[in-house]
Specification:
The protein has helices at about 5-20, 20-35, 100-105, 110-115, 145-165, 230-259, and strands at about 40-45, 55-60, 70-80, 85-90, 105, 135-140, 170-180, 185-190, 195-200, 205, 220-225. By secondary structure, the protein is of the alpha/beta class. It has one domain (about 25-120, about 130-259). A hairpin with a 7-residue loop joins strand 2 (about 55-60) and strand 3 (about 70-80).
């Protein structure tokens, strides 16, 4: 291969690279690492339906030394410049839903400590979801929605697999599924006059009634890449809140282990 061919090859590689959204995954991984989360790109999990290995784009873990508090953020990345993502929402989506089960995949111990401190966690990020919540995510101007559906089921399956494989299963464990989109994100809802409205949004929550491994499915955070800095602020507050909430329990548990 001559040197004169290299620019053409580089151009084709860049075109292929951009078409498949790899840059979004790489930028996300770098951002999460820079924010001091232990982060892995292109992690694999076992699909509970097919029993085959599947790839999830990015998994980030809060760095906690004892192993008794485990907080994971599991990301599926989607990139589209021509087909905006549309989140159908309703103010009734979370009616009669347990807020702790729609919060994250979490352990019995996690739910117990949230319940014990109910009055102290009102301002914890993502716990109390007011307003309209999504019940379906699609791509505009497309008839085939299989790619978006696979993103939803994939991030839930990867999150559940991550949760099931936490080394200390009876610790304070939280796993949050997230879909990160590079492109436009719109909310679609009916107003009080039953008129259809579209609004451009930076993020929203999606609750799909999909049972993964005979378990509940929590809300998925759907957000644009442009929202990532704000997400990190919320994630840092969340990890601080959960650290403070569990600190005394973890100290007591470590004391009992030593004795």
């Amino acid at each position: 291969m001559s040197e004169k061919e290299n620019p053409n090859i580089n151009s084709k590689l860049m075109e292929w690279f951009n078409r498949h959204g790899y840059q979004l995954e790489m930028k996300l991984g770098r951002k999460m690492n820079d924010a001091n989360y232990f982060t892995r790109n292109s992690e694999y999990y076992i699909d509970q339906d097919s029993n085959k290995f599947r790839e999830i784009d990015v998994i980030s873990q809060f760095k906690e030394p004892t192993g008794l508090l485990n907080i994971f953020f599991v990301f599926e990345c989607k990139s589209s410049k021509s087909n905006p993502y549309v989140l159908f929402t309703s103010k009734d989506t979370l009616n009669y839903r347990n807020k702790f089960l729609s919060f994250s995949y979490n352990s019995q111990l996690s739910r117990e400590i949230l319940t014990e401190n109910y009055n102290e966690i009102e301002n914890m990020p993502w716990l109390n979801k007011d307003g309209r919540i999504g019940y379906n995510l699609v791509q505009g101007f497309k008839d085939d929605q299989s790619s978006t559906y696979q993103a939803v089921t994939g991030v839930l399956k990867a999150s559940k697999y991550t949760f099931d494989n936490i080394r200390i299963s009876d610790g304070y464990n939280f796993v949050f599924p997230i879909i990160l989109v590079e492109g436009e994100l719109f909310e679609c809802y009916l107003d009080e006059h039953y008129e259809t409205k579209f609004e451009s949004i930076q993020r929203g929550f999606l609750l799909e009634d999909i049972s993964i491994g005979n378990s509940y499915s929590p809300c998925i955070l759907v957000m644009r890449f442009d929202f990532l800095d704000s997400f990190l602020e919320e994630a840092n507050k969340l990890t601080d809140d959960l650290t403070n909430l569990t600190k005394s329990k973890i100290v007591n548990a470590l004391h009992n282990i030593r004795n």
